[in-house]
Amino acid sequence: MNQIHVIGAGLAGLSAALSLTAKGRTVVVHEAGPAAGGRCRSYFDKELGFRIDNGNHLLLSGNTSARAYIKEIQAEDAFRPSVGASFPFMDLNSGQRWTVRPNSGRIPWWIFSARRRVPGTRLSDYLGMARILRFHDETTVGDAMRRGQLYWRLVEPLAVAALNTSPQEGLARLLGAVIRETLMRGGAACVPMLPKQGLSEALIDPAIAMLKSRGADIRFNSRIAELILEDVHVTALRGADGLIPISDGDAVVLAVPPWVASDLVPALMVPDAFEAILNIHFRHSADPSGPFAATGFIGLISGTAEWVFIKPDHVSVTISAANNMVDDPARSIAALVWPNVVDALGLPAAMKDQMPPYRVVKEKRATFAATARQDVRRPEAAAEMAANLVIAGDWTDTGLPATIEGAIRSGRTAADVLLKL
Ligand SMILES: Cc1cc2nc3c(=O)[nH]c(=O)nc-3n(C[C@H](O)[C@H](O)[C@H](O)COP(=O)(O)OP(=O)(O)OC[C@H]3O[C@@H](n4cnc5c(N)ncnc54)[C@H](O)[C@@H]3O)c2cc1C
Q1: pLDDT confidence of residue 384
Q2: Which positions of the chain have pLDDT values less than 50?
Q3: Which among 24, 55, 102, 273 has most CB atoms closer than 10 A?
Q4: 3-state SS assignment for residue 261
């Protein structure tokens, strides 16, 4: 194989390009945008006056492909020092706060400890939660276990975050895949990994630097508008400056979002229903010695805000599975969640009327909806549309929901398929 063209410089495309260059392949990356990262990126917000992430991303130490990727791009130091597996929560209705702290090893003795488990839960609840792992059919998270305190205070918020889909519709088997790779492996696999600065500094810029150091040709503002297919081979790409020939022995990794992939390869079946994620960034310097400054985030129950992340110069709120809110005006969204932030941070109640400058980032098609109907529309890497074409992306058939881990794993799988050709 001579030259490999990777279309899309999101995590899937970058991961494929890294795997291929690691094996000495010549790689050209075509990215439509002015920068890499796709749905996982940072940028300077002129109005707020600092860099923000398009969305808060939570990675866990059990995300093995992501960790291998971070190691490969030598970005381990771009993440905050570990504070162990620690998940602070607050119920905004009752004001109750607790921290879920799974113990390191695989034997989950933390569920016996009132100081480590979810308040108001019993051992039998955790056995019930393990049922989620059993489902391989179309059972939803909401139907997979009893909806008691453990469900509302842990499983529901984790499911919404991991699946970006309401638990009434989200597939238990996809959540089960996440639990199997994290919680089931013990607290050591559940340590949150948060960037010291932004997503781009931690996951994207070092990958670009590594690829360049390996001789990859990375082309920004280089949208591919068409794949020319002849006799089950891609023979050319239509780029902004005309046709890019794909010679005999060259290959293509298509690592674009599903709606672009189906435009470029119309015969490809892809997920076609999506869920939005909202991120609301407030200019506010949180007390660095505050109760959860060490973990850097808190989960909220009974509010509109679901997770609050504490950054050096701002606090940032995530609301997942947000199709029902995404078209609301930015101001009303911010006004709805700011009081939740005030409560979460333990600020004086009077501050609820003093909303600081904010930015609402609406990612309308943040991920495919993790439903049974969508999961069957996920194609494998070797899409069999053309002999020299493979696909990658969080929406391909990774067995995981649409996550960083899934995207990175899909890029590696695509590269492995090509390397075996
Ligand atoms: C707000 C938000 C919050 C999230 N939170 C989390 C989280 O907490 N944890 C987690 O694990 N995951 C999270 N995710 C999911 C995660 O971001 C994605 O799974 C991952 O970034 C997808 O990577 P990808 O490479 O598959 O796709 P993308 O990031 O979409 O990359 C595709 C790339 O292709 C480029 N492209 C498109 N069309 C063309 C074309 N014609 N020619 C050339 N290039 C093209 C795009 O510009 C883009 O750079 C979140 C996503 C969002 C949006």
Answers
A1: 76
A2: none
A3: 102
A4: helix
Interacting residues of 175 by C-beta distance below 8 A, sequence separation 6+: 132, 141, 158, 159, 162, 163, 401
Residue 251's nearest CA partner among 233, 275, 231 is: 233
**Total domains in the fold of the chain:** 3
Among 135, 167, 190, residue at a domain's last position: 190
pLDDT digits 0-9 by tens, 244-253: 999 999 999 9
168/289 same-domain check: no
Q: Do residues 210 and 136 share a domain?
A: no
Q: What pLDDT, on a 0 to 100 scale, did the predictor assign at position 1?
A: 59
Q: Is the CB of 277 under 6 A from ligand 1?
A: yes
Q: Is residue 255 lining ligand 1, measured as CB closer than 6 Å?
A: yes
The runs of H, that is alpha helices, within 105-150 are: 123-129, 141-144, 149-150
Query: Quick one: pLDDT at residue 294?
Result: 80
As a whole number of angstroms, the distance between CA 70 and CA 172 comes to 29
Question: Which of 39, 58, 308 best tests ligand 1's pocket when mutated (most atoms within 8 Å of CB)?
Answer: 39
For a mutational test of ligand 1's pocket, the pick from 7, 19, 40, i.e. the residue with the most ligand atoms closer than 8 A to its C-beta, is 40
By C-alpha distance, which of 209, 239, 234 is closest to 221? 239
Contact 324, 168 (CB under 8 A): no
Q: How far is the CA of 134 from the centre of ligand 1 (A)?
A: 30
